[in-house]
Amino acid sequence: MRHPPEFDRTHAALVYDFPVASMIQALKYGHRLEVGSALGEIWLDQVLPDTMPDLLVPMPLHPARLQERGFNQALELARIISAQCRVPLDRDACQRIRDTPPQAALPLKDRRKNLRGAFTARTEAVRSKRIAIVDDVMTSGSSLNELAAVLKKAGADEVECWVMARAVRTA
Q1: CA distance 102 to 119
Q2: Pairing of the two strands 119-121 and 94-96
Q3: Which residues neighbour 127 within 8 Å (Cβ) at sequence distance 6 or greater?
Q4: Helix %, strand %, coil % for the chain, to 5?
Q5: What pLDDT score was predicted for residue 1?
Q6: 3-state secondary structure of 158
Q7: Are 87 and 55 in contact (CB under 8 A)?
Q8: pTM for the full model?
Q9: How far is the C-alpha of 110 from the C-alpha of 105, rounded, in Å?
């Protein structure tokens, strides 16, 4: 790979396709928090890595988006996974400091640029730790890659991506 990702590995439970895509959209945009519980249980059933990280970090939403949506779907998934895996969850280890347009609305080539400088991490929370970023969907991986870069710059030893679903390109 000419440009390897900043994260060390990704664990995805499912492919982002029907009916999973509909479930995630119901959670995110339909405020169906019970779907988040079901998705978290599916993740645990399908993935559950052998080696646990030191800390779970949900993909942060910008405060404006959080206020608009009313909740962070990544945090909802992370709560379930944290409780079952007994891995600490730190919802404040990272912040989204730039209110960027939604990644889904952008062409793939513009997604990385859209996120530059969008995140910050508290060094004291992540230094010398193995971190798992929890998110609902990995499409291009740009959001996860940018957050992983910020976490490593803040001193994280290793960063994994734990996602509910991953979009797969078909040729």
Answers
A1: 14
A2: antiparallel
A3: 154, 155, 156
A4: 40, 20, 35
A5: 64
A6: strand
A7: yes
A8: 0.93
A9: 10
Kindly report whether the peptide bond that precedes residue 88 is cis, defined as omega within 30 degrees of 0: no
Report the 10 Å Cβ neighbour count for 157: 15
Flag whether pLDDT at 171 surpasses 60.
no
Helix (H, G, I), strand (E, B) or coil at 72: coil
Distance (Å, whole) CA 11 – CA 22: 20
Task: For residues 5 and 123, give the distance between their C-alpha atoms in angstroms, rounded to a whole number.
Answer: 21
Q: How far is CA 151 from CA 31, 49, 122, in A?
A: 29, 21, 8
Distance CA 121, CA 93 (A): 6
Query: For the segment 21-49, what is each residue's pLDDT rounded down to a tens digit?
Result: 999 999 999 999 999 899 999 999 999 88
Task: Give the single-character DSSP code of 105.
Answer: G
Report percent pLDDT > 70 for the chain.
98
